[in-house]
Design goal:
Helix content is 58%, strand content 10%. The protein is α/β, with parallel strands linked by helices. It folds into three domains: 120 residues, Rossmann fold (3-Layer(aba) Sandwich); 59 residues; 119 residues, Zinc Finger, Delta Prime, domain 3 (Up-down Bundle), CATH 1.20.272. The strands form two sheets. The chain has a five-stranded parallel sheet with strand order 2-3-4-1-5, with helices on both faces. Strands 6-7 form a two-stranded parallel sheet. α2 runs parallel beside α6, α6 runs parallel beside α8 and α15 runs antiparallel to α16. The relative contact order is 0.11.
Length: 315
């Protein structure tokens, strides 16, 4: 299935879906559309590094006292075996859904067959018409009323990198914009204080605008190091509380932050408790990937990984 046929899928009754290809913005948007369509109460995201058949199978097969509907999202750069996918698909029904997102440009005929035609292959957008089509789809999904001239300006401003153009558009969810507003906005300094960003990242449900701003204002490796530092501080608090049943910041951190910061740290630690291993693995995977690729790749990777990290924390 190609993207022009994708809208009809959103109106069909389906329990599983396979999406793959090389266009980051298409993968991001189509995944968001599928998540909205399935609208399950309980979600589990498994990246390539933390996937195992047992983990995925147990999530879908076991009953939960907290919810009836479940959505399993598996995201990878390597194909899963047909045997694994058949086992997971066999569990899918009205209440249990599966999305497999593969960042791989090679044709996957064997996996397409396993998914019984419920798949979408996306390609890089090589001309203005294709790029404008995906940006229009993006605007429709996020209820952005953008003029053609504004989208064209956005495409040119980011040198035809539609993933960056899409991230910029996230600032205008449920809003209207014209070319003059956009020119003024993209020329402004998007700097954001890191501490403010970090707490908003932990506590808020909608942080895509903040993610884009912080990635634009920080070197990727420096930003990653700051994230490590902040999460390690929260991990120290979690470990101290589990051992002592209360928190002494002077002993735990070596200093006592202001009272309002202490409250935020305690609340943030509770939110990420039991997710520490997954958070560290995701950060390590991101660091390794950044060091293997050129600097031109780093911003796109950081945005993608921060979105995944936020999804992990909030679900």
């Amino acid at each position: 299935m190609y993207e022009k046929d994708f809208p009809r899928v959103l109106n069909q009754k389906i329990d599983y879906f396979f999406i793959y290809g090389s266009c980051e913005l298409s993968l991001f948007l189509r995944l968001e559309q599928l998540k909205k369509k399935f609208s399950c109460e309980q979600k589990l995201f498994l990246s390539q590094s933390d996937y195992s058949l047992n983990t995925a199978y147990d999530f879908l097969s076991q009953n939960s006292i907290f919810s009836n509907s479940k959505l399993l999202i598996i995201e990878s750069t390597k194909a899963l075996s047909s045997k694994d996918l058949k086992a997971l698909i066999s569990l899918c029904d009205d209440e249990k859904k599966l999305i497999f997102c593969l960042r791989n440009i090679k044709a996957q005929a064997d996996i397409e067959k396993v998914f019984n035609g419920y798949f979408l292959r996306v390609f890089d957008k090589k001309n203005t018409n294709e790029r404008m089509n995906i940006l229009n789809d993006f605007c429709a999904f996020y209820n952005i009323k953008a003029s053609y001239e504004a989208l064209l300006f956005l495409e040119r401003n980011y040198e035809f990198d539609i993933f960056k153009a899409g991230c910029e558009l996230l600032k205008y969810k449920n809003l209207s914009l014209n070319i003059n507003d956009l020119k003024e906005q993209v020329s402004e300094d998007d700097f954001i204080n890191f501490d403010d960003f970090f707490f908003a990242f932990i506590f808020n449900d909608e942080v895509n605008n903040l993610i884009y701003s912080i990635v634009n204002s920080e070197d990727s490796i420096a930003l990653l190091n700051k994230l490590y530092s902040q999460f390690l501080r929260l991990f120290s608090i979690i470990a101290y509380v589990k051992e002592n049943a209360n928190i002494d910041f002077k002993v735990c951190l070596g200093y006592t932050p202001p009272i309002d910061v202490c409250k935020k740290l305690e609340q943030a630690a509770r939110i990420i408790d039991y997710k520490t291993k997954d958070i560290l693995l995701l950060l390590q995977e991101c660091e390794l990937d950044l060091k293997r690729h050129s600097s031109d790749y780093s911003q796109q990777k950081m945005i993608s990984q921060l979105i995944k990290l936020h999804f992990l924390i909030k679900n």
